[in-house]
Amino acid sequence: xxxxxxxxxxxxxxxxxxxxxxxxxxxxxxxxxxxxxxxxxxxxxxxxxxxxxxxxxxxxxxxxxxxxxxxxxxxxxxxxxxxxxxxxxxxxxxxxxxxxxxxxxxxxxxxxxxxxxxxxxxxxxxxxxxxxxxxxxxxxxxxxxxxxxxxxxxxxxxxxxxxxxxxxxxxxxxxxxxxxxxxxxxxxxxxxxxxxxxxxxxxxxxxxxxxxxxxxxxxxxxxxxxxxxxxxxxxxxxxxxxxxxxxxxxxxxxxxxxxxxxxxxxxxxxxxxxxxxxxxxxxxxxxxxxxxxxxxxxxxxxxxxxxxxxxxxxxxxxxxxxxxxxxxxxxxxxxxxxxxxxxxxxxxxxxxxxxxxxxxxxxxxxxxxxxxxxxx
Length: 376
Known about the structure:
By secondary structure, the chain is an all-alpha fold. The protein has one domain (12-83, 175-374). The protein has 11 helices and no strands. It has helices spanning 12-32, 49-65, 75-104, 116-127, 153-168, 175-194, 213-234, 243-256, 268-291, 297-331, 335-374. The longest helix is centred in the last third of the chain and has 40 residues, at 335-374. Mean pLDDT is 95; it is low at 1-7.
């Protein structure tokens, strides 16, 4: 879901859409506080924003790097750039996560106390993007999260895997074979969605390694990242006006759709919806957005701002959600009672995301880039 600095022209609309999708994820996670199942969740399909992020990553990485391998780019150089781009905010988010866990009282969701050793081990694993397995000592929250101090880190973990795949294999793959790979991975993704791997006929999988979650998350990333890469290779812009607003409306509308089939029981129709969005609609939206350009100052500033805060906003928001959940569940508050706190959290996350982007992430990345350059 991130881009690297590059000399080519930026796709500013894609930056803006990343921010729109990240906001939808925040509202979705607030809804988790009050949902009784994945079927009555607010903005029900916003977990699909992760698949959209993966498509964006594949497209932008292919656009930025496919032509560089013949000019001296190596796997080591590429992965170093990805680490510099992604990891400063990973560190910040995990540190926020451990603070959040301490504030909650160092307890699992069932009230069981967690040892200092377990917290430190979870922190170290999180800093190095090493997943915690369900039921092990560092899985400190007790609900199976691979990254229990900052749940959404699971998608960044798969982002790293996608970057490694690209550096070692995908950039070498001829376009005709990449098309075959996309089709095969698309079949696998459809099987996950339609085969009810999640238990609710949805693609909200990958956050836990339990019950095949790791492999299903890998399938999500593999298809979406590779189809984004294929789009970057076959990209021929089409003429479209108002692309940002059209694509933003599509993203919000698609992610806000209620569970397809109602709340009585899991429905195959919801799996069909998830599969269609991921296999066809998200790639089409990325294609349209990449074709468009901002044509007025308001659109340009909106895209720039959303692009700047999108990654920090996504990666730091969940420690605040943990605090919201603990507070609301402890007091038995419903939406009508908790909404002022939830709204304050949204504002806080947006402001902190901007502060992190300007005063931490960008300076640290600049320093690390300079350090690498001096070592050459």
